[in-house]
């Protein structure tokens, strides 16, 4: 599954985000013509794709605006559509539930309608989320596990998931859901806990900060490496039939483990004095633990993640040390 037919065209919503930027890189390497949907902002947010702007074609558009989505479909004439755009921060979704529902939920329907009208032969990837599982009663979670979302973000993702299934079943469109568990990288936004930790630890090590403030240390997640997960997305659309797949490592680790490994990377063994728990970062409803079972993806897509948790932490901490002007620590 290493290459694609020459001249294939892909449209990516959310191309400026972590996943969108890595996906654009990989599709370009496979010979795709890549289009990215971007919202018009007074200050463009293209940092993650600054090295790609002369190789991708950016189209103005917004998941709130059906006319702009129709225009993007007509301009790109996509063979593949990757819907990665969303209000994707779980904490913010509690403060902005309507916006989250409009973009993450209804935005998916608007994009599916644009596909149905202008690109009904395309293949559509919907970025579903492990947050849909929420309050789990069985572990690990797979494609048959019931959803019990615990945030407006999770609720919106469940809506988008079933919308994708409905368009597949109602109109015969090639629409697939990728139910991805947490996946991180140096391109993760600073509002996400993993990047908050890697950046905070680097700052403490360099004397630029004294404390790392977090909401909890006990939450457990299945954390993988984002570049491997965008390869999952591509593989999903090369399958002979549309279907829904879980992408996960099958391992679960706590926020405390992430913190400990991050401080260990910079040589700080007694990390507890540097960490402060702040109630303002707690959410009205928490998801205590998520762990995925990606057996179906392994067997049918040949997808197996290779970067494990300790290496992921090392990659992120080293990156933030470098960004802040420090030399990378010697390998431990």
Summed up:
This protein is α/β, with parallel strands linked by helices and 332 residues long. The protein has helices spanning 18-29, 66-76, 90-95, 97-118, 152-171, 193-205, 226-238, 255-265, 295-301, 309-323; strands spanning 9-13, 33-38, 57-60, 80-83, 123-129, 174-180, 183-184, 212-214, 220-221, 224-225, 244-247, 253-254, 275-277. It has two domains: 9-184 and 224-247, NAD(P)-binding Rossmann-like Domain (Rossmann fold), CATH 3.40.50; 193-221 and 252-286 and 309-323, Alpha-Beta Complex (UDP-galactose 4-epimerase, domain 1).
Fold and architecture overview:
- The protein has helices at 18-29, 66-76, 90-95, 97-118, 152-171, 193-205, 226-238, 255-265, 295-301, 309-323; strands spanning 9-13, 33-38, 57-60, 80-83, 123-129, 174-180, 183-184, 212-214, 220-221, 224-225, 244-247, 253-254, 275-277.
- With 332 residues, it is α/β, with parallel strands linked by helices.
- The protein folds into 2 domains: 9-184 and 224-247, Rossmann fold (3-Layer(aba) Sandwich), CATH 3.40.50.720; 193-221 and 252-286 and 309-323, UDP-galactose 4-epimerase, domain 1, CATH 3.90.25.10.
- The longest helix is centred in the N-terminal third of the chain and has 22 residues, at 97-118.
- 48% of the residues are buried.
């Amino acid at each position: 599954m290493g290459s694609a037919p020459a001249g294939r065209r892909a449209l990516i919503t959310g191309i400026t985000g972590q996943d969108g930027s890595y996906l654009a890189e990989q599709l370009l390497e496979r010979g795709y013509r890549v289009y990215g949907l971007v919202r018009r902002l007074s200050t463009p947010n293209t940092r993650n794709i600054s090295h790609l702007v002369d190789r991708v074609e950016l189209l103005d558009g917004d998941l709130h605006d059906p006319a702009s989505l129709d225009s993007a479909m007509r301009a790109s004439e996509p063979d593949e559509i990757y819907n990665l755009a969303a209000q994707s921060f779980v904490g913010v979704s509690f403060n902005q539930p309507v916006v989250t529902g409009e973009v993450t939920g209804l935005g998916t329907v608007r994009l599916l309608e644009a596909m149905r009208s202008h690109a009904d032969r395309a293949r559509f990837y919907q970025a579903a989320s492990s947050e849909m599982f929420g309050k789990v009663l069985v572990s690990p979670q797979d494609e048959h596990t019931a959803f019990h979302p615990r945030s407006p973000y999770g609720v919106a993702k469940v809506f988008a998931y079933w919308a994708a299934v409905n368009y597949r079943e109602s109109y015969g469109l090639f629409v697939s859901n990728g139910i991805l568990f947490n996946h991180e990288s140096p391109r993760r936004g600073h509002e996400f806990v993993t990047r908050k930790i890697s950046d905070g630890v680097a700052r403490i090590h360099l004397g630029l900060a004294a404390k790392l403030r977090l909401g909890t240390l006990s939450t457990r997640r299945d954390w993988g490496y984002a570049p491997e997960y965008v390869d999952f997305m591509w593989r999903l659309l090369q399958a002979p039939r549309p279907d829904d797949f879980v992408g996960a490592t099958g391992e679960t680790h706590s926020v405390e483990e992430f913190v400990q490994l991050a401080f260990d990377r910079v040589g700080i063994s007694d990390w507890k004095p540097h960490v402060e728990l702040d109630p303002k970062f707690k959410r009205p409803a928490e998801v205590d633990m998520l762990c995925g079972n990606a057996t179906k993806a392994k067997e049918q897509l040949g997808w197996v993640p290779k970067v494990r948790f300790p290496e992921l932490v090392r990659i992120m901490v080293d990156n933030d040390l470098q960004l802040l002007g420090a030399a990378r620590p010697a390998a431990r």
